[in-house]
Design goal:
Layout: E1 4-7, H1 24-30, E2 32-39, E3 51-57, E4 66-73, E5 77-84, E6 89-97, E7 104-105, E8 112-126, E9 130-145, E10 153-163, E11 169-175, E12 179-193, E13 199-212, E14 214-215, E15 220-224, E16 229-236, E17 239-244, H2 258-280
Antiparallel strand pairs: 1-16, 2-3, 2-8, 4-5, 5-6, 6-15, 6-16, 7-14, 8-13, 8-17, 9-12, 9-15, 9-16, 10-11, 10-13
């Protein structure tokens, strides 16, 4: 049996420019991060939804490796969603409380929906010609609180993986029972490399979501997959990732905090002042 390298949250080697075999049009469609949340407690009445947030990113190259949203009102609802391609993880969570004496009904349409998705194209190369199994996993951990309304509350996960040119293979799960979620989605594809150094472009999509279509009077429902859904790429030792469509798979791009921005601006102002004084000397 060939030894395997399991690439989890550990950063890959620096990823170079886009592989020439991956068309930019394909990348626009197949590379991106998205998180979104929707909360509507008036069951589509006259009022607008209490929260409606969406953020997406498909720019190439990315200027960051993570998108996230969060919000809520104490005692009413909460939501959070993170899609992080650098650390290869997805996180979601949400809750909705019905403090009234009347059930909240969505009539099949979610009253709360929280969603996180990651899509990328990976270029794999082989040091030795041959046929190899390549596996991508999505390890999902969390919990679901249905408060006796099973069937109206659910979480979902999906993983697709396959060559850019060809058919993808899909694994998915739906969680409706209250309690702990501990699941692994797995897709294995067999790839043939005709010669050493040859490359094959593989695309994947992974998402996790939580939703509820009914909240009985006096109940709170919640879903928490913020324990994280990890992406694990399992490669034989002969194979390696040479680049990714996003340029960020396994390479976290830090985002400066607001105070860091302030320090940077102050530093630039100081540099400008010093330069101006020197110019007058």
């Amino acid at each position: 049996m060939k030894a395997s390298n399991v690439l989890t949250g550990i950063a890959l080697a620096a990823i170079t420019s886009l592989h020439s075999g991956v068309a930019s049009a394909v990348l626009v469609n197949n590379v991106g991060l998205e998180v979104r949340a929707l909360v509507d407690t008036d069951a589509f009445g006259a009022k607008a939804p209490l929260a409606n947030a969406i953020e997406s990113e498909i720019d190439l190259p990315y200027d960051r490796s993570v998108v996230s949203i969060s919000g809520g009102t104490t005692g009413s609802f909460s939501y959070m969603a993170v899609s992080d391609i650098g650390n290869q993880l997805l996180k979601i969570g949400g809750s909705l409380t019905n403090p009234t004496g009347t059930d909240f009904f969505g009539f099949g349409v979610p009253l709360i929906n929280v969603y996180a998705q990651a899509k990328d194209v990976l270029s794999l190369t082989s040091a030795v010609a041959g046929t190899y199994d390549v596996t991508l996993e999505l390890v999902v951990k969390g919990n679901l609180v249905t408060s006796g309304v099973s069937g109206d509350v659910s979480a979902n996960s999906l993983l697709t993986f396959g060559p850019v040119v060809g058919l993808n293979t899909t694994d998915s799960s739906r969680y409706t029972a209250a309690g702990e979620i501990n699941d692994t989605l797995s897709v294995t594809r067999q790839l043939t490399f005709a010669a050493p150094g040859s490359a094959i472009d593989m695309e994947f999509e992974a998402f996790v979501s939580f939703s509820a279509t009914r909240v009985p009077a006096g109940f709170t429902i919640s879903g928490d997959l913020s324990n994280t859904a990890f992406l694990n790429l399992i490669l034989p030792q002969e194979l390696s990732v040479i680049e990714s469509g996003s340029g960020t798979f396994g390479v976290a791009i830090p985002i400066p905090e607001p105070q860091v921005h302030a320090l940077m601006l102050a530093g630039l102002a100081l540099i400008g002042t010093v330069a101006a004084r020197r110019a007058r000397v």
